[in-house]
């Protein structure tokens, strides 16, 4: 199991970009952290999502 934004999800052997795609989250304007460490966008395709981790996915919103 992994925890994504506080909700438990089944663990699947995948990378950050695969997780974002599987969860149907538009990748534009998104930041991802695994166990409190920001994952650079350029590393999404090579960074695995480990079993038991906490993932935070944040979407930037324009406005003021």
What's the short story on this structure?
The longest helix is centred in the N-terminal third of the chain and has 7 residues.
CATH superfamily: Beta-grasp domain
Taking Cα atoms only, what radius of gyration do you get, to the nearest Å?
A: 11 Å
Terminal Cα separation, in Å? 37 Å
The count of strands amounts to: 5
Main beta sheet = 5 strands, mixed
- The mean pLDDT is 94
Low-pLDDT regions? none
Strand content range: 25-35%
| CATH-derived topology | Ubiquitin-like (UB roll)
By CATH reckoning, the class would read Alpha Beta
- Which structural category fits the helices and strands? mainly beta
- CATH architectural grouping: Roll
Q: Tally the helices.
A: 1
Shape: globular
Helix/strand order, N-terminal first: EEHEEE
Q: In total, how many domains does the architecture comprise? A: 1
Strand order of the largest sheet: 2-1-5-3-4
Q: Can you walk through the features of this model?
A:
This protein is mainly β and 64 residues long. It has a single domain (2-59), classed as Beta-grasp domain (Ubiquitin-like (UB roll), Roll). It contains 1 helix and 5 strands. The chain has one helix spanning 16-22, and strands at 2-4, 7-9, 30-34, 37-39, 54-59. The protein has a 5-stranded mixed sheet, with no helix packed on it. It is globular. The termini are far apart. The model has no long low-confidence stretch (mean pLDDT 94).
């Amino acid at each position: 199991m992994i925890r994504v934004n506080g909700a438990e999800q089944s663990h699947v052997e995948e990378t950050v970009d695969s997780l974002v795609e599987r969860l149907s989250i538009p990748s534009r304007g998104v930041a991802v952290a695994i166990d409190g460490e920001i994952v650079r966008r350029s590393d999404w395709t090579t960074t695995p999502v480990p079993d038991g981790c906490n993932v935070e996915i944040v979407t930037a919103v324009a406005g003021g």
